[in-house]
Amino acid sequence: MYAKCGSFEEASKVFFALPERSIVSWGAMIGGLAHHSKSVSALFLYVRMQELGIAPNRIIFLSVMKACACIGASKHSRLIHDHIIRSGIPLDVMVGSTLVDMYAKCNTPEAVEKVFQCLPEKNLVSWSAMIGAYTRVGNHVQAEWWLEKMQQEGLEPDGIILSSMLTAYSHAGLLQQGHEFFMKLAERYNCTPGLSHFNCIIDLLCRSGCLDEAEDMIASMPSSPDMVGWKALISGCKLHGNVQSGRQCFDELVKIDPNDAAGYMLMSNICAGSFALDEVEQIQVMRRFASAMKKPGTAWIEVGHHLHEFQVGMENSPSVHIKIQQLSRHLRNRDYFPEFSVVLEAFPFQDGLSREDNNTFIKKLKC
Questions:
Q1: Count of H helices and E strands in the chain?
Q2: Per-residue buried b or exposed e for 244-278, using 16+ beta carbons within 10 Å of the residue's own CB
Q3: Using an 8 Å Cβ cutoff, are 361 and 312 in contact?
Q4: Same domain, yes or no, for 357 and 322?
Q5: What is the full DSSP assignment across 241-268?
Q6: pLDDT at residue 232 above 80?
Q7: Res. 364: pLDDT tops 60
Q8: Which Pfam families has this protein been placed in (predicted)?
Q9: d(Cα 106, Cα 102) in Å, to the nearest integer?
Q10: Of 267, 294, 321, which closes a domain?
Q11: Whole-prediction pTM value?
């Protein structure tokens, strides 16, 4: 109960106080952690379970595969796949589709193909993961091939798969192909374009520098634009330095969700890029008043069989801080200098640290 509600402190107390932990209690704890994106903790418990000689069941394997997918832990993914094989868990549709999705989110298309080909039965979830494996790495050619193969097998793509294809065209900057695909959604795929499809084409137009067309698209949508659409448009305004349109997008974002930090940060960047520093300060005041704080970015790196978690601004590891300083000096020696136009307003330097020491904060903020 506590784990499902995300109350992990209470869940941990109950779990570790149990005189004897059954497979059900292990599964509940690991599943709750994975469900709430506490992936590293879920994998840690899974390893601990293995050390105690407790054999995972199908439910636990599904949870740890989800945890691996969430953080892109490719080495752990292969180990867990190996555990599944050695455990004799049958490769049914659910397990197989989750395996395909896990490898896809770990950016290992070759492994995805191998698992996909072994599936006794393929459903929309497995096909979506297979196609998504290539759209995620920007390989629209292979994605198109698998989409066509899916149709040859007698299955029609759903809205999620079609959105995935549009995302691939957007990331590849293929304006004409993406626009043609969008226009064929209803005729060829019997799919009425929804919010996700409009958001993808707006993103494609913005990336291609067609801001006027993107604004026309967002104005002509059959339903009201959501946060994703406005964020795509304001990101385009940031990319191309369009302050006026950026202000309009920012107003819409604040109307929809005044507590979301992304709009404030993007608008601050736009204003700072045009040296409107007074406006930057006004936006930061609005942001503080709305308590719209951005959750620090987190990344995971696999070294051997160990997962290491890094967070923007983390100071709990002196060795990491020293390594960042060394990398910063190495980059400067190669004539690389980070951009500081927004940092003073949007993310003040910490006391005692120079601009060079804060490169980790800066580059995260500027992304």
A1: 21, 2
A2: ebbbebbebbbeeeeebebbbbbbbbbbbbeeeee
A3: yes
A4: yes
A5: T-HHHHHHHHHHHHHH-TT-HHHHHHHH
A6: yes
A7: no
A8: E_motif, PPR
A9: 6
A10: 294
A11: 0.73
